[in-house]
Amino acid sequence: MKRVVFCDFDGTITAEETFVGMLKTFAPELSAQLMPEMYAMRLTLRAGVRQLLESISSTNYPEILEYARPKPIRPGFAELLDFLDHENVPLVVVSGGLRGMVETVLGSFVERVAAIYAVDVDSSGDLLRVHSEFEEDTELVAKVRVMAQYPADEQIAVGDSVTDLNMALAAPVVFARDRLAQYLEERHKPYIPWNDFFDVRDRLSQHWALKDTES
Q1: Is the full-model pTM beyond 0.85?
Q2: What is the CATH number of the domain that holds 197?
């Protein structure tokens, strides 16, 4: 594979923090306690997100999906997919949030992405139970492990927050905004700032045209 794009979901594909907003809605007290600890990296995402999700009643799961349904997708996503299709470059969605929420918001876009990696939940008991095929170290979804499934000449990461930090540090080309940009600046890791997916498309188009000319 020549190139592959790994894209976060919450606050990246969505124009607002959908998963974080859901946790604040359905586990407000615990969210207020644990989220600052996760952002400060005193509590791992793996421990914090699991604790939050597994505090929520299974009867709330349909409401969680309905909460996600109207959330807007950041402008330019369809156009980025069109561009990547033309370039024959897959886009892989890598989310530390719930698969059901990702699929609900993406709708017909599900068919256009190469794959979705996210947290699965079992709602058959009284409380939600979390399952992730890629749970490792500090993350419920270890995004670098997902990246390893797609060896390529060039890996591109697109993200916005603490859940994307390891992925961003591992990728040679990073589009970062919001908290992720701050984390990368603290670590002196170069990144490309972006506001919407038109920015990502245009910068990738320029970058690849230059690289292809050089090669």
Answers
A1: yes
A2: 3.40.50.1000
